[in-house]
Amino acid sequence: IISQLSEKEIAFLQMACTEMTYKEIAESMSLSPRTIDGYRDELLKKLNVQSRIGLVTFAIKNGLYKL
């Protein structure tokens, strides 16, 4: 599944593991909040998870984010 993720999706996932808000993530990535919402929604579908916690759990389990 990781190979199917874009660089921007991986960067978003890594930032979602922090305490940054989605608005802060958008600013950090020089994207609009709507684009970030799109990344989130697409990743929720791709990874078959229900929430930000699911995204964070996936990122940690798959080595995309280290505590």
Keywords, separated by commas or semicolons:
Arc Repressor Mutant, subunit A; single chain; globular; 4 helices; mainly alpha; 67 residues
CATH superfamily: Winged helix-like DNA-binding domain superfamily/Winged helix DNA-binding domain
Number of domains: 1
Radius of gyration: 11 Å
Q: Which outline best applies?
A: globular
Task: Describe the largest sheet.
Answer: none
Number of helices: 4
The count of β-strands is 0
Look up the CATH topology: Arc Repressor Mutant, subunit A
In percent terms, what proportion of residues is strand?
under 5%
What is the typical, i.e. mean, pLDDT? 97
Distance between the termini: 21 Å
What is the subunit arrangement here? single chain
Q: Would you state the CATH class?
A: Mainly Alpha
Q: Architecture, according to CATH?
A: Orthogonal Bundle
**In percent, how helical is the residue content?**
55-70%
Query: How does the helix and strand content classify structurally?
Result: mainly alpha
Report low-confidence residues grouped into runs of 5 or more: none
Order of helices and strands: HHHH
In a few lines, what is going on in this structure?
With 67 residues, the chain is mostly helical. The protein contains 4 helices and no strands.
Structural features, described:
- The protein is an all-alpha fold and 67 residues long.
- The chain has one domain (2-61): Winged helix-like DNA-binding domain superfamily/Winged helix DNA-binding domain (Arc Repressor Mutant, subunit A, Orthogonal Bundle).
- The protein is 63% helix and 0% strand.
- The longest helix has 15 residues, at 33-47.
- The mean pLDDT is 97.
